[in-house]
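Progress report, Aim 2. The chain analyzed during this reporting quarter is listed below.
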Amino acid sequence: MIRGGFFFVLKRYKQTAKVLFNSANRIVRQNMETQQIGKMKVVRYALGLLRSIGLSNLLRLILFSFAAWNGQNLFAQTPTIVQQPAGSVRTVGESAQFFVLAGANSGLTYQWYKEGVAIPGQVSSIFNIPSVQISDGGSYYVVVSGTNGSVKSNTVNLTVSFKVPDTKPPFFSTQPQNQTVKRGSSVRFEVAVTISGAVSYQWLKNNEALPGATQSAFLIESVSVADAGFYKVAVFGSSGGQVSQTAELIVDERIAPQITVSPQAQTNTLGSIVQFSVEAIGFEPMRYQWLKDGFQLGGKTNRTIEVGPLIAPDRGVYTATVKNDFGQVTSNPATLTVRLPPTITSHPANVSALEGGAANFAASATGDTPFSYQWFKGGLPVFSATNQSFTLAALSQKDVGTYQVQVANTYGSVLSSNAVLTVHVPPRITLQPLGHTVYIGTNVVVEVKASGEDPLGYQWFKSGVILNNATNEILKLQNVGLSDAGSYRAKVTNPFGSAESLSVDLRVNIPLLLLRQPSPATVYKGADVLLLVGASGIQPIHYQWFKEENPLPWGTNATLQLKELSPADAGRYSVSVSNSLASAHSSEAVVVVQTKAAIIEPPKNQTVLAGSDATFEVLAEGDEPLSFQWRRMGTNLPSATNRLLTLKNVRFTDSALFRVVVSNAFEVVVSEQAWLDVDPRAVVLRSPVDQTAYAGTNIVLETVADGELPIFYEWQVNGTPIPGATNFTLVLSDVQVSDSGSYRVRVSNRRGNSTSSEAVVKVRPTIYVNRQPENQTVLEGKPLHLQIEAGGLSLVRYQWFLNGVPIISETNSAYRVDAAAESDAGFYTVLVENEHASMLSLPAEVRVAFPGIARGDFDGDGAPEIVFESELGQLAAWFMGGTNFRFARFFSPDFSSDPAWKVVGSGDFDLDGNVDLLFEHRNGSLAVWLLEGTTLKRSALVAKGRAQGEAWKVVAVADFNADGKTDVLFQLDTGGLVVWFLDRLDLITATFFDPLRSKTSGWRVMGGADFDRDGGADLILQHTDGSLALWYLKGASLVSGELLSPSDPGDPDWRVVSLADRNNDGRPDLLFQHATTGQLAVWFMERNVLRNASLLNPSDTGTGWRVVAP
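Predicted structure tokens for the chain:
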């Protein structure tokens, strides 16, 4: 059984061998067809293939056949590789082959790989490379796949080398040379050989063949860092090959920028947004700056910029400058063309013209030409009015109206503003005046009428001469006389012309003449007066007398009799005379009625208390001036010459009889007598007066009393009687401070008593200070004035001290410095002394501020301003006087060109005496606007653009290390703090400190200022609930902390936005802004204690503005 099976296997082996031989023969034939292999090679290949099977593989084939004979599938899962491919070493130009032998119970497929990458088209069990090149070197394997899976062969290597003759004739006349070039430039390696005939080349880098590098020269047009290495070339000729010497290529990256892509020209419309980009290579970092028409664009420092929304000034030529530490380059120019619709630059103007004249309208526009024009009147187009200007001839009122023009081009149209045409009409005479013949004394009316545009002005002429005040269309001549006769004409004018009337004559005849005027008269009251007038003319003549222009019923004769005149009859009298032809009015005659002095009501008896006032009064009549003279007991009282006689502070002895003499130019009368009776009770006529004296001196208080004698006195101090003090004087000897008090005296007699008013007695020490010198903050170069007020028993002497050192020759109560300097800062005291005592004043601190570097002081007046930033990024400042708004000013420019930059504080960063603005970018970078007033001089990065990080935010800008230079404080949301100590714009050191640590929840630094006057800034913190705290710092170290008093503004929406001295007391104050309403208020502080609070005037900033500095 076994023997039979064995022979069967042998039989199967022969069959298998035959199959293998046939298979190999088929493969070889295929090779012959494709590769032109010779017949002898075919034989050798076939024998080698059979020998390569070997015994072990023969046994595998036997087992495989045996299993197949028994119907078993020993390899059903995956194919089996019977013969693995073998590696080989070849020289350039030789052939190389890889072969794999695999078995399976179904059809197989193959895929060859090099370096893990499938080789296209190599899908048979044999992989042939007919002519090996350097680039063919590497690792190879094959994947054999069947219906039940796949298997990967071993990885083998193909090593390719050059075949170099043992003997090397002088082959190269020129060798490649070492080279050092900058990145982006070109490099060329080149050889020359001495052999003739066909020559081939292959360049190598680091012993690896360079594809396509098969010429005598090898060029790299734009060198990169990756091109650095060692280069050589292999040269092949008919007599063999040789490799050149090695040349090293070193790439220097330190090259100036080179622009690879310049910005492109663009054309777009108004309001759109365009981008310009530039591409460059070069040593990093590279910096970009864009320019327009040769001028730098602020903030345009990126590779790509946006311009827009476009406006007309955006037109121009844009270039980009790229630079690094080794040079700079400018891009090709790119022209930005903005398509401009028309914009009217000169609107048609209002026109005023005369009727019959001409009117011209014109407009000018800018934009892209050509333009078209259409004129409108009252909103309707004017036919054929399609030019830039429009003229109307032979004007009339129908042409009056509003005119405008529409200008259009390809990109749009615009309508001008209205221009009003006014057509004016000059005057024309419509009614001529008429001539008159009248009698003397009559009234004449001459009239002219005219048409024309108002206002019409009239001027009458008589015989060619202007008549004053004759400026109406009607000329009224009252009571004409012979001189009024003549020729009259009128001239009518308005602003647009004039017209003259015809001349007419006025003739005057005489019907009535006054020969005598009534005469004035002056008489006494009760006398008679006769007034008369003389007239001639046509009879009968009629008379009518008037008083004050009122007719008198009985006055109808040439004479007027006035009897027993009273003052009511005085006045102005005149008479009107008339006949049938005319009338005349006389001049006025003034009648004066004089009245003698007379007493109507005499003075009355008076009863008064001693010490009070008594007043006598008399009522009298008579022509002015009336004179009065009062008498006491028949004797004239000096200066008692008025209707009233007032006797001040009468005494008991002033009781007497009084009369008054009344007189005028016509009479003297004496009144009846009046009695003054003074009450005899004791009264105080003069109270003691306040007195101030020095200790050790004497004080005398006295009173004056009146009344019936005897009078008794009792002195009191603070309401308590003083024993033995019973005289009208009180002497206080060798007084002391304890003798100070309120003194009064009580006087009495048998009729009654009274008490004086109180006299305050102050006893001062022998030396004292009324007013201490006060703390001050003055600007450098401004006057300094300190004042002390002191007094004492004798002459007071002064000596001023600065920081405890006497100031030579400063021995007055006032200390003055015309121009304060830094050396004048310090603590001032004054020694006050006299021959009795001495004392030292309280210290007064003087701080000298430098103009322009007081916190937020942009105009150098020592008062801080308030800087605002709008939601749109606009920047403006309020210039303040304490809490009062003086005026506002926008910064120039008034906004940052990049909205990612925001103002976070202010300070004098470049130490030029001007306040500068600090900006923070959203990426954490800092920059400064270096200002002069509110005008930008230039901008610069802080710390050369270094950023603390996006999570860190600037919370305070102040001098933290007392070096006179501005520093910057950052805070994390978690509470950590970092202070940048700066020297101008350079970062010297950064110090981290975190005093809050775990107890910071809700606290935020709101700003820094020197509250304890140690020269370095301290910090104000505010909690989300509104609470306020003060940290005292030494540099970046927390010394102590305390809550403000009070610690809460009352509303958490009131947030601290600025720290600055707003009342010029040398101490920082707190400026608040309400988060909802935007209102502003200030707390005036003394360290951590609130001294006063006030809203700003005005307190409302308007919508969208927030305080950002100082």
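The CA atoms of residues 252 and 628 lie 123 Å apart. The longest strand covers residues 884-895. These observations will guide the mutagenesis work planned for the next reporting period.
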